[in-house]
Amino acid sequence: MTKVSRNARRILMASGCLVLASTTALAGDFDPRQGDVKTLVDEVSAQGVDRAWLERAMNEASFSQGVLDAMSGAVERHLTWHEYRDIFLGEERVAKGVRFIDQHREAFERAQREYQVPPEIIAAILGVETRYGEVTGDHRVLDSLSTLAFHHGTRGGFFRGELAAFLEIAYEQDVDPGDLEGSYAGAMGYPQFIPTSYRAYAVDFDGDGTRNLWTDPVDAIGSVGNYFSEHRWQGDAPIYLDAEGPTEPPSGIEFNQAQKPYVSVSELQDAGITPERALTPDTRVIPLALELADGDYRYRLGLDNFYVITRYNHSYLYAMAVTELAEAIAKARGESKSWFESTAIESEEHP
């Protein structure tokens, strides 16, 4: 049976030619029986996914130039802290966070018991990512990941791994991969997990037999808690401490790096940056210089829990936005939490 590409079909249709279904079969943009697509199908099939199911899925996948365009534009101009903060710290998002915790109080309390992650932190992640599940993406994940897996110039290998994980998840959960939507980069559901994170950290928190992050807020709450726990979140330990420093960030100190705490307090003090609360000189921190609207800088010292937040998104701006949104939600709920109070801590080992 002759196969006709979608582009060729459009040309034939436009020229008035009839393409008879009885004599032709349309090939998708990703032929599962050829080249790199076949290799991926071979690999996923070897993991126990039905081959016929995989071939049908890949035949349904469509190339999306819009996804590639979005990826190429993802490196936006540098935002200062006050610009980034203004995106996520509006009164409406804070109020919705309070309501979201109230609506799912039992799940949040259980997540805190099981994973030691405060409700406000989990809520802030969901608030920054998707406005508590309201905006989860309108790209078919199958199309996004297939396009990036086989057409992205530098990260194709990474996205092939994500596509493989996505297909395994859809098959295991008996859902049509073509029905699932997410971001242009393939992030999914309330918490915007990429497929490998979904596979590794998603939990069935409501006990219904399915790990559903697309439409189940309870599973999303538990899964974010599990993600943080697996990345060594430390209970109610502080996330950062405030510090005083010079008008301009001093040279010789690398600020705002999404790394494990990497500069000692004694080094910072030598550069003129002093914690507002006592820390032993050998305590290692993440030095943060946050640019404000008036051009001044606010200095903060990120601790281990700040680093854990950057494992969710490797950006100090993201981690601080999550932290401040969590603080704002806690304050709106009338809570006073040790994780955002600048309490003194002792020197500790940083794994």
TrEMBL record:
GO terms for molecular function: peptidoglycan lytic transglycosylase activity. SUPFAM superfamilies: Lysozyme-like. It is an enzyme of class 4 (lyase). Pfam families: SLT_2. GO terms for biological process: peptidoglycan catabolic process. It comes from the Bacteria. Residues 1-27 form the signal peptide. Keywords: Lyase, Signal. Gene3D superfamilies: 1.10.530.10, Bacterial muramidase. Its EC number is 4.2.2.-. InterPro entries: Lysozyme-like_dom_sf, Lytic_transglycosylase_MltB, MltB-like, SLT_2. The active site is at residue 129. Residues 37-327 form the Transglycosylase SLT domain. This is Lytic murein transglycosylase MltB. It comes from Halomonas elongata (strain ATCC 33173 / DSM 2581 / NBRC 15536 / NCIMB 2198 / 1H9). The lineage of its organism: Bacteria, Pseudomonadati, Pseudomonadota, Gammaproteobacteria, Oceanospirillales. The gene is mltB.
